[in-house]
Records
---
Amino acid sequence: MKIQPVIMSGGSGTRLWPLSRKARPKQFLNLVSDKSLFQETVLRLHDGGEIFSAPLIICGRGHAQLVADQLAAIGIEAADIILEPCPRNTAAVAAVAAAWVAENNDGALALIAPADHHVEDAAGFRRAAAAGAKAAEEGAIVTFGIKPTHPHTGYGYIQSADELSRGVYRVASFREKPDAKTAADYLAKGGYYWNAGIFLYHPKAMLDAFAAHAPLIAEGARKALAASAAENGARLLDERIFSQTPSDSIDYAIMEKTDKAAVVAPVDVGWSDIGSWSEAASDPEAAGHMMVDSENVTLRSDGPVIGVVGVDNLIIVATGDAVLVARKDKAQEVRALVDELKRRGREDLL
Amino acid sequence: MKIQPVIMSGGSGTRLWPLSRKARPKQFLNLVSDKSLFQETVLRLHDGGEIFSAPLIICGRGHAQLVADQLAAIGIEAADIILEPCPRNTAAVAAVAAAWVAENNDGALALIAPADHHVEDAAGFRRAAAAGAKAAEEGAIVTFGIKPTHPHTGYGYIQSADELSRGVYRVASFREKPDAKTAADYLAKGGYYWNAGIFLYHPKAMLDAFAAHAPLIAEGARKALAASAAENGARLLDERIFSQTPSDSIDYAIMEKTDKAAVVAPVDVGWSDIGSWSEAASDPEAAGHMMVDSENVTLRSDGPVIGVVGVDNLIIVATGDAVLVARKDKAQEVRALVDELKRRGREDLL
């Protein structure tokens, strides 16, 4: 069994403003540990070549150097780095990945994973991947159903059906982000899992699914890859072709339509998508911030020293040109600030 | 009648950190209006030469250029700028002022005022000064008793005795910062006023008081002024002499001992010493900060854009290298952060 890791690093992470910026989005920040989420993801899918091949990275055109630097810092060499000339959402990335693996890593399964998630138990995740591999080799498109710890309304859910093999189920349905009541119902009923947005598949299975459900995306992805050109030590997808490829999520374009969907569940590995500041950790003590008469405050800075007096339940994020102060349970609304900056044309702060 | 304004600009304003720094302390910041407190103070004691002469500025050695620039910006020329080679507190400044006025503005009264206070009604304050001038010409050392609006525990109080002339009283006693109960008693009894730290006197009256109560300070001040040297378009007090002059406040050294103290009261001009961030105003809207679902938040920045989400009752102050977030009623405790920075040797942030 061979698994080809494909790291999707094209996200923007606007809810992690002001630390997350276009030039250095969320996945390239050290939000949870002394490694970036991207580095954590690469290392999570690395086992010294036993099952996992060297990673394929797919990222935004502007991040080629950042990716190269962050890989070098952890001593990992990529199999290839593919640059997106423009964002085309996850369906096109999955199709590019399928085409690349079919051509470059014969017989391997593709495991595509967002670069901006955190997983506590990396070995546990690799075991979950191995558990799904047999179903994938038999043609299933395997998803990973995270064991829900609470009725989170910010995640999509996967409902499982009958068991295909030990710990792997047919998917009954994909559910979009639920309201609080629906989420509570899911947890009470059982058999509903958080959709981690990670997929394991044989290239042929995915390309067949694309042929059936989204042929234009598959064709655009294949041609853009075939016409790619070397740039900054990476491979730039053809801009004219890729920009005309339809933009859609893999969930909508394929997963909700195919009858090949399977789910490994429950996956209990301490997974989080670090969707907002309320899920990130404070800078370590060493960062030199100062707290007086304060508690339950998350402090992040890329330079400025932060001093707090008499406050609680806050997230404070400081950069040299922007500062965020948000109540912890309002961290999702940081997006409104980013929208306001866009309206004002403050590209310098985005 | 002539009055010589003397602007005491030597303060450090640590409770206004992180905007107030050694290189640009509180009095040189635009905290309440589009002018600095220093500029406001100079203009408050300016009437086109009718009663008030051109100001004498006494400031720290490092601020000569800042003072010159801020005076130029409001089109005021100083009579003289005296630089302190080291801080020696207000008694030495009052003695320097008396010696300078005796020598350079014959027959004028000296009005010495801290540069870091705010007064809403400048014309009202000039009327109060004129009201105290007769007593000062007759030998009184005149203070200004601000009409208290609430039992503030951060100010000293002046207790008035019998009336000397209309609106001018002998001082019964000076009271240090009271506890809350005592402050409430003062307001209930009446005849107690906030001590604004502003003094009006004839140079001879003050020099006589120094001769009686603090001769070493008077001698040091006189000699340091006589031995002063030109520096940066100003006059630097002799460092060796001034550094050996005793350091004391004018209140302790003179006012609590002399029987010449008088008080103009009640002075009702919207006075505040802007002692902490809770008394400062927000940046104007134009500064481009963003508030979502928040209220009663004071925002100050010398550059960084501030975005707040879901918070209230906060003071947020941002600079490129330091950020303060404090609950409004804890703003006094900012001093603890500054003390901590000193302990850590973070001179770059002080």
---
Amino acid sequence: MELDINKNMNIAKTSLPRVVIIGGGFAGLATINGLKDQEVQVVLIDKHNYHTFQPLLYQVATGGLEPDSIAYPLRKVIKDIPNFYFRLAEVSNIDTNKRKIHTNIGKLKYDYLIIATGSKTNYFGNTNIEKFSMAMKNVPQSLNLRSLILENFEDALLTSNLEERNALMNFVIVGGGPTGVELAGALAEMKKGILPKDYPDLDIRQMQINIVQGGRLLKAMSEKASEKAEDFLIKLGVNIYKSVHVTNYDGYNVETDTDLAFKSCTVIWAAGVSGELINGLEGECVIERAARIKVDEFNKVIGYKNIFAIGDIACMDTKEFPKGHPMMAQPAIQQGKHLAKNLIAQLENKDIRPFKYNDKGSMATIGRNKAVVDLPKWKFQGVFAWFVWMFVHLFSLIGFRNRAVVFFNWVYNYIRFDRETRLIIRPFKNKNKQSF
Amino acid sequence: MELDINKNMNIAKTSLPRVVIIGGGFAGLATINGLKDQEVQVVLIDKHNYHTFQPLLYQVATGGLEPDSIAYPLRKVIKDIPNFYFRLAEVSNIDTNKRKIHTNIGKLKYDYLIIATGSKTNYFGNTNIEKFSMAMKNVPQSLNLRSLILENFEDALLTSNLEERNALMNFVIVGGGPTGVELAGALAEMKKGILPKDYPDLDIRQMQINIVQGGRLLKAMSEKASEKAEDFLIKLGVNIYKSVHVTNYDGYNVETDTDLAFKSCTVIWAAGVSGELINGLEGECVIERAARIKVDEFNKVIGYKNIFAIGDIACMDTKEFPKGHPMMAQPAIQQGKHLAKNLIAQLENKDIRPFKYNDKGSMATIGRNKAVVDLPKWKFQGVFAWFVWMFVHLFSLIGFRNRAVVFFNWVYNYIRFDRETRLIIRPFKNKNKQSF
């Protein structure tokens, strides 16, 4: 049976202007929220049918949270909003002349197009690393990593070759940003509290957790946060290599631009992201290097009248951030909100206002009672920072159920020193051997 | 890198007798529990690293529960028990002469072998149905079904061919046992409360839920339970076809042994199970038809001295159950417990006792406030039965965290008429299009 896709996506034609939003991340959802109850038709397109709360993906990968508690159905976001549609689709390209997007389920006309496609892992052209290393940008990838970590320990039990066993228990995290630091901390806590009990017949002390990083850790944060994070990680037994770049990985041997080398079965690449570009935009608006889209101060794509970009994919050249805002949740949410306001103003022939980023600060958690927080006027680290981190993340999750389940898991894990979702639901290494 | 598997599985050799248990289901875990703190070495083998709480798989498939809340890590079950081992492996055959099992990770000697491999879906030799229909015997299968159900509705939106759209919204459940009945009820509740809001641009009234069944519903339960379940389902809008057998399915057309035929993109096969046999047993102990293993009243496999079978795979011929006990949790748990006691008695040269099944009754839920319960001395249906069903299932789950998360989800779903895990984490239809 073939579905008829040579047509519109069955979106009702109305006299309302149609706003098509590509991507249901932080930016896209903020816009949706700002546009509800307004005189527009909104079509949200995403390749997943759920919003992913990316900041907690590392906890899924390390068995601390169930994936379903950090994902939220996009249809539930827009349900009960009249004239709002969702379509599960992947956009292949934009026809800016005909004002249409082309997707795997058909074409769709837009009056206004909002590109909120976010970012993807950047391997800087190294195809070997792309092939053999693990990424952690979406739920399936995090589940793959969760499976791989556990499968490695199961395999480590079976070999009497010491080098192999160590390689199976050797984790190399490339990149010392929040993702790398938080994952390293979580692995270190698994090493301390979970694995020795789960694998009493393995010498878990042999497990190594390495962060390889070009500059200092958390380089987007303050020096103090950086130092303290390093301090916390070292106390947790993590090896930190600075001023080192990983240059190659073949699934077993990790090469760097120094004498440093590892034998490891698990390399997690958290060294960079680039925009998730869509074909069809032309001219100076596409910044090849970072794969981001140049926008003006109203998030309007340079050279186009009715196309906007927000969040990670958008690069707004400001005094404070000449290379664009940091690719994080806050700029995305703020740009999404702001664009919704401007769009409404524009439709009502009112003045539109340039975007101004309100830096609320940034934070990272290293583990139990250990976090670093940089607020604009106050930087602090330790237990209180950890509570602030938890509160902010809990509050940012979408949906009461998700908040409650995450909160319960955190309390449980804290009291019991546990991480119970250490499940290999879909084997990663032995994909072909899967019998279901 | 090749793991060295041409050897023992690195299980320490001791003077203790080694009990190898294949399968970490209800039966296997009950034995584990009974053997802890005894003078034995226990090796648990399972192809998953978690225990699956099968009675709630249908709630995973219908977006009511996250998969991780009905799975429990097997390593956590045995952690802190000295001399207890777990190995993630699939057993290919048993060498009863050399008292060894052969697995994909090597061989292992046993002194006592306990087969608790459970059951698998029985297609009665119909390869078409096996190829095109969905089963619901483990977590990945339930997640596949969850994805398929949601993908079908996404596709239904896109077609203007009425027949195709109806086929996408037509669900055929083959088998009217607890699995079929519970799944039909859950789908009916999705139809009522969730789907019209999620898909306002689809006419969800066209969605059809059909149960096709050879005899009466819930035939293992009382007539009263059967009638009431039928009554509940009809009120929920489920079509029930009795005295009909599905004979073929090609992914679109469902044929039966009557004039009845369906066009459906989703057939769920819940019409039968058969034992999950292992190669290597010989003689009269193997019952080909049901693929079960004949055991005596001590759960000892007929013809062998130190091999036992418990749970679904075991067929004990008793007066009450000449074809073996029902393939359900209760006989499995009771046999597991009992065998552990007998094994200890045998090792201590005490008398062993024959197994006696204590029928605690059975139950099934149809939906919100609707369940049927048959206790030995009391049969009841409705709201109270539903609370009893929930209490018993919550209580039977393994682990405090799982119980708490399931309980919270149930309360939330009850109050909000919701099922929030309607997520397509791994697409099922478009597996090849997966970009991760």
---
Amino acid sequence: MHTNRNGRIGVDHVAALLLGALLALPAAAQTPPAAAAPGPRNLPAELRASAAADRLAWERLAYLCDRIGPRLAGSPAFQRAVAWGSATMREDGLDAVRLEPVTTELWVRGRERAVMTAPVVHDLPMLGIGESVGTPGVEAPVVVVRSFAELGPKVEGKIVLYDPVIPPEAGGGARYGVYVRFRADGASKAAALGAVAVLVRAAPVHSLATAHTGMLRYDPAQRKIPAAIVAAEYAEWITRLARAGVEARVRLEMEAHSAGNVETANVVGEVRGAARPQEIVLIGAHLDSWDVGQGAHDDGAGVIHVIEALRLIKAMGVAPARTIRGVLFVNEEHGSDGGKAYEAAHKAESHVAAYESDSGGGAPLELAASGTPAQLAWLLAAVKPVGLPLRFGSGGTDIEPIARDGVLAVGLRVDLPNYFDIHHTQADTLDKVDPQALRDGVAATAVLAWQLANAPEP
Amino acid sequence: MHTNRNGRIGVDHVAALLLGALLALPAAAQTPPAAAAPGPRNLPAELRASAAADRLAWERLAYLCDRIGPRLAGSPAFQRAVAWGSATMREDGLDAVRLEPVTTELWVRGRERAVMTAPVVHDLPMLGIGESVGTPGVEAPVVVVRSFAELGPKVEGKIVLYDPVIPPEAGGGARYGVYVRFRADGASKAAALGAVAVLVRAAPVHSLATAHTGMLRYDPAQRKIPAAIVAAEYAEWITRLARAGVEARVRLEMEAHSAGNVETANVVGEVRGAARPQEIVLIGAHLDSWDVGQGAHDDGAGVIHVIEALRLIKAMGVAPARTIRGVLFVNEEHGSDGGKAYEAAHKAESHVAAYESDSGGGAPLELAASGTPAQLAWLLAAVKPVGLPLRFGSGGTDIEPIARDGVLAVGLRVDLPNYFDIHHTQADTLDKVDPQALRDGVAATAVLAWQLANAPEP
């Protein structure tokens, strides 16, 4: 999961909040799974039962994590993931399995290192920020700022450390919301005042000297300077020194660079609709991850939700009314190339809804949706058998381009309170995923897709 | 804190356990602070009050952590810590402040890296084990073993990964107890069968891709092979691959080497006894730390307990009956050079007790002690005003040599449930120390020292 530059997750606008209050029914108040199945079979219940017995969900996630590993968009590992995704869909007997071309930029981290050189010589646990330029070595005194407002002429020739004030009681999402602004825009804002590099404090609830990565956006009007995240403990160290009147010096070495454009693909497979095959219910996740950890929660779990939901639906032997189209997107993490390419190629088609699972592999908690009041009312009726509360919010980064065309967007939100401790870190690994929660996510995705594909006309 | 090679912490022998049951009185059952003070002043209560108001405790720990930093024995930072320790004791007006020469070996980590090269290319979060030899680069398939018993001819030419079975419900100390055997002896046991390097799984309760360090012991009869700790997530990854029949390959590069012997010193300062100055109550901590993190809990907090206890006692303006001698030891972490040198230099003196604080800066929980039944009975009576339960256990690594000469040994144990998550890691940093708990540790140390120095004859 990537979040937008102002750090808000999910809630789109004030009107959404107002309507959201009407729609956010507790799960218990909703009708239990029933009625939606055509004929004597209760197909949502069958999907739940097959998801509950789904061993392949875990095996496939283990394969993706352990055998393919982290899969930065455009990297050799990503290309292996693309081949695995399409082979898996073919193995499952899906319809119209294909690769849809996407061009993406390959960013390469290379070796990297940040060393405090004064007053103490010490390696700083760090990760370069995705898309950052590299440096053979830049060393300078560090100026600590708490906000963009504290930037000024004093940063000229210096390394800026963004160490924002975060309320101690703030949860993971709120902390991430504070930090992500500096990660995204900190480099260019400091460069505009002559800084030579930037460091950004990681802001998880729990840190064990944990560095995170993510993407930045260079302002084309400014010089590109290197940028890295430092673990909270080490940002605090430098900040304490600054408060004590002691200037820390840091040397930053990063081999980070762009390796240029790479031709790759969104992986697409379908369960073809019988009654209205031209109407599309898109279910998606992003196949890429950051290049650290294993991308187990972000977004390996979402990939499994999608491919397993498709497999279980196909295996029922009953075609849905509409076509359910699974898409494994390219480069959600730093460019949304797959989401944009999908929109460009498919905007003329009739999408009744687009769903994305990109909040990790925790137990399903709620659905976030954005659309017109009529779309949302339709959704509310259709997804009752999913058994999850509904609230307003972003469906997901990959489906934002098509959502902007007016398509109803739905995102799965899960119960994963420590998500922002491991998000974009070396610790986003398979051991952090609970197999039962993963199966529950498959069930939610499958039932949701089935319901959307069979609900009455919007 | 370093623990002994079989991983037991604190409990010395079966007889101790039996007697321990008699001595482990709950704090509430002990008499409150009173009576022990000579004259109308209640000196233990005064010490508690001054400790409760002690701002210098935190300021000095911050100085040690932030301005001196991690201080591996014999390193330039350690030598600065020695100078700081003796200057601080002089500033506080202690008696007979001096440096007592100790020779220690300086181990240097240098740069290091472990990379999984197959089936996925990925950096493994790791730390070389202290005292390990380096390697310009060794690459080999990995053989996973769960125990020493699983070693065999199959490890010849391979890298051994020790991934011991640990009960999921095991706490930090128990997990550490399992892991430390492999950290200490794993290299030589694998080398005996032809292995080329070893990796040991870190075993904290919580891991965020966290590597730990510590020391190993080479068997002189075996070839020295390099050894490193890998974060739990990455050990599990390799183990899952092995179970799936997939051989992982790892390349290990370590610049680790010995930089030879260094002349350094235990830092000693006293509050001279008035009545029986030749009788010594030793209170100590170790001034060295590992070279990662800041050594805040291990053993910066203990150093502060000792120097602040001495300062507060001295500041009362009342001499104790016996001499209270503070010692900041050299190289507890990988050689106990300071503890051995102290014993060699002072064994002829009359020590009534030796106390060490080396379990971190958490709130005081209990005292562990080892000695004869008569010594322990004396201790029990003397330390009632400390208000902590007493149980059998090791006093501490630095005072073990003198304890073996028959001196009563006492160790402070603190409430720090996450200690083994940060122990010997980059995350043992100042932010993990609670200022109030630190002051409480100063109070416990000061009252204990005062009581031992003024109790009736053993």
---
Amino acid sequence: MENSGLEWKRESGRKVFDCPVFLVNEYVCRSPDGLRRTYTVMDTADWVIVVPVLEDSGEKEFVMVKQWRHGSQGLSLEFPGGVFESGEDAPTAAARELREETAWRAGKMRKLGEFRPNPAIMSNTVHIFLAEDLRFTGAQELDEDEYIETLRVKPRDLIEGMGRPPYVHALMGAALALYLREYPQIP
Amino acid sequence: MENSGLEWKRESGRKVFDCPVFLVNEYVCRSPDGLRRTYTVMDTADWVIVVPVLEDSGEKEFVMVKQWRHGSQGLSLEFPGGVFESGEDAPTAAARELREETAWRAGKMRKLGEFRPNPAIMSNTVHIFLAEDLRFTGAQELDEDEYIETLRVKPRDLIEGMGRPPYVHALMGAALALYLREYPQIP
């Protein structure tokens, strides 16, 4: 896509806040026609989301996780996923999050696409994978402050529920859109 | 959905950063079994996304906007949308953003659903609307630092492009999932 006429340049930046989860930086930017403005950006590690599909006698089910979310102050039913650990690439992070949160391992894993969770105010990328040929390993490996219940969800229930509690996490909607592109004919 | 066993309680909070776009607060929270942890949350106004559909002789096209995004440092092709202004409700914000960014008004507007953009670290909600029966008003009403190009996009191009540049904005993927629930048979 042509950049000309819309592309800004970053001239300088400075850190204005940090915590273990993210940094906040302010960047002075210059517009195509010379306007100068300061924009605040949350800089953080990349994330991964895994869409795990169990198939039994032709019937598909998603493996999903129910957990409390401290931003929304509510429960959320989501595909497994999380933050890249230091040095991880996307497939490694995907396999690890799937195993830790759900106790399933994937025989087949492939990338469906990637998004910017919020390109206006965040710099990171969320990588979305499809996980198939699942094998149960027996036990989740949760952090001390992770309380996660694993559930199986029928595709029709997920599609009909999306955008209403407990299917409130927008990034799961984005992951579902990529899944529906590949498998539009869900029964 | 049952909360028991997963629900945390907020015990206290304090502001650790603010800027015109968002606040960052730290909350001390207590887990179901008494663990105490501090979580950092970005508190900000609600957002709206509008999926504007033009229909001409049975052929549908989305009205979309191309703009530079300062978090991702790149161009993004998106449905129109933005931040609620003070005192606005969701339908008012939706109509305003559609008009300002695209110069189209909707004869019919209805809500498709809502998501938490990031329930882990953000408190706000994004409200997603379908806009139909569109009428062109002639001119965008852009802020001084908004440089927005309006485009018409065929549904098939959007679906095939989603999750790759320039369709990088995750919330647009979530909006598309809600649209595809209502109109799964896009040609």
